[in-house]
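Need USP domain-containing protein's 3D structure for a figure. Predict it.
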Amino acid sequence: MSYILNKLVGLSNIGNTCYMNSTLQALFGSNIFNNVLFLYLKKYPNCIDNISYMLKAYISLVIEISRTNNSFYNPAEFKTILGKENDLFFGYQQQDAHELLVYLVNDFCDDKKSKKISQLIKKLCFGKYKQYVYCKSCRNTSITYTEFFDINLQIPNKSNITLKDCFEEEFLKIDRLDDDNKYFCNTCQTKTVANKKIEIESVPDVLFISLKRFTNNNKISTPVKICHNINLENKKLELVSTINHYGGCGGGHYTANVKKNGSWYNANDSSINNINFSLEDPSIYVMVYQFCD
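Structure prediction for USP domain-containing protein:
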């Protein structure tokens, strides 16, 4: 039996859990993420006994939602397990949806019980950065590679900002490593002044992009015009869901926008409503893109 989500079901707010509900709805919105996961489980059904508690809780939640005939579902069991596995999410205080997303995906990819499934998810969700550091003393360029799962973008201080502007702000800039932040050059064997630049080397099939809306106890509510489709490193990706935040720092309310069968819906806890999706909605905080042909 297939448990791939083909419908939208609301999630009950059981006490400041809109951040959790919205994060889950955004993950549900990626059919590639869920299809790969459940096709693997279908092929190796016994592996479900040897996976992390959080991944098992996520799988169980997807199965229950796919089976229900109700318009919403109570995720109390998932919340209980989440609180036991991570103290940050224990209790019923409002938390940051992006922090939860980072925790969940990293947990799924760091499953020491089942390396096969964790490697599968890691391959699906992680990309690679290429970092250049140019030493001003010996003129040697050092190249290193680091993995990423989330591209966290600064919002430029200007008007009429687009997602492209945010990418250019992050990846066209050259950082000078100087003063207290000097670079230790292996060739010079000392700390020197250097220039650093980062590029995207490879892009995953499921890409998470977040905007740095929260800084120094302030929220940046500037609209950023995002795109339905983007092309990164010759990989075409389409927008399938967003996590939205309304209000100020340390509180507010989260919802998710999810694309299903060509239409957009807003998942606001237990309510699911068809919407005219705006690419310039200032509440958009996290975007989920996935590979498209």
